[in-house]
Amino acid sequence: MSDEDDIVLSELDDEELVAQMFDDLYDGLKDEIMEATEILLERGWQPYEVLTKALVGGMTIVGNDFRDGILFVPEVLLAANAMKGGMSILKPLLAETGAPRMGKMVIGTVKGDIHDIGKNLVAMMMEGAGFEIVDLGINNPVENYLEALEREQADILGMSALLTTTMPYMKVVIDTMKEKGIRDDYIVLVGGAPLNEEFGRAIGADAYCRDAAVAVETAKDFVARRHNQMAAG
Amino acid sequence: MTDLPSDDQLTRSGLAPEGRGRVLLIACGALAREVLALIGRNGWDHLDLHCLPAILHNRPEKIAPAVEAAVQARGAGYDRVFVVYADCGTGGDLARTCERLGVGMVEGPHCYAFYEGVDAFAARGEVTSFYLTDFLVRQFDAFVWQPLGLDRHPDLRDMYFGNYETLVYQAQTDDEALTELARRHAERLGLEFERRATGYGELEGALARA
What we know:
Oligomer: heterodimer
Strand order of the largest sheet of chain A: 2-1-3-4-5
Helix content of chain A: 55-70%
Low-confidence stretches of chain A: none
Distance between the termini of chain A: 58 Å
Low-confidence stretches of chain B: none
CATH architecture of the largest domain in chain B: 3-Layer(aba) Sandwich
Strand order of the largest sheet of chain B: 2-1-3-4
Number of helices of chain B: 11
Number of helices of chain A: 10
Strand content of chain A: 5-15%
Number of domains of chain B: 2
Radius of gyration of chain A: 19 Å
Mean pLDDT of chain A: 93
Number of domains of chain A: 2
Structural class of chain B: alpha/beta
Distance between the termini of chain B: 18 Å
CATH architecture of the largest domain in chain A: 3-Layer(aba) Sandwich
Number of strands of chain B: 7
Number of strands of chain A: 5
Structural class of chain A: alpha/beta
CATH topology of the largest domain in chain A: Rossmann fold
Largest interface: A-B, 21 and 20 residues
CATH topology of the largest domain in chain B: Rossmann fold
Helix content of chain B: 40-55%
Order of helices and strands of chain A: HHHHHEHEHEHEHEH
CATH superfamily of the largest domain in chain A: Cobalamin-binding domain
Radius of gyration of chain B: 17 Å
């Protein structure tokens, strides 16, 4: 839009700039998001502040409008791509500045399934919320999950599937965890377009998450409960 | 015999039954041409075809309710109803609905499987193939390109298709122009191209038992 072209990001005050970043995320403008991220850092914002107040704040609006049927997958992907641009600047800095760590999640798409759009969105939003992510990618057999959970000392297992023909594989993973006596060592979250709460319950997951925002809130909730249990124990 | 409506009509509106015949077929609009060809070839005058909009393919959660509504609205007056859908991404919902309504349906996960043969398709175990049928080749923009927003944002292509390797065109007919069109779709998606002549596969056997 022509009026957008006239906006000079560096001339906006902090509040205006964050509001502009919300708009730019919504419109999927990666270059503008990267520029604004740099500006906030130059003004002395902590990387964690930029992440939560600007990027996650903006993506939350995108997520809500997706949930409400106002935005569709292509627009969400563009927004996610813009957020990824900002994240690429912040990520190395977050490690240096000791941002709070919520827990560690191993995430991957199940065996036989190569779809990763939803999984990538969840991984990005979880990272934005302070979780450490170990992304196993696509087409994962049970061994990949188990090996990564142990190696990484993870708290959470996230499994994703887009196909009705592949989603039953999640039960294979959970049943194997039960057989090995490690099921209760982890929070197991599942998601994907054809899933629902009933399916999540039936296969023995801790929760089905219908979108990335729900995944973040559910993960936070379960991690907090775990900490409370440990404190009580 | 029923005049075949345009592919656009089959995508958006479907096809009304003629009101003749003893068995009502309730089918996906993407199968209209093929079902009518089989009816004509085999002289199955007892079959009357009613197609639901093919675009339901993109919203599988709506298929079972739409089929149920069609059975209730159109089924009376026929000896029986047969549903010409496979599971089609309904996660068993359609099978449960058909069982409850006492009507039969086509076996298999989706049309790609029954065109090729359900067992043969499963045995291939192709994870990185993207399938098109004759109908989907003709309606590629309506089913793939536009709903994924690639008409507006072609740069998203690799986010959707980056993990795929091959576009498999399951050809029901031998049509050079259609094959060329399918090849162009593969190019647009950045995928290898394979043409696989399946004919009508197990669809014919399913209709014979309808």
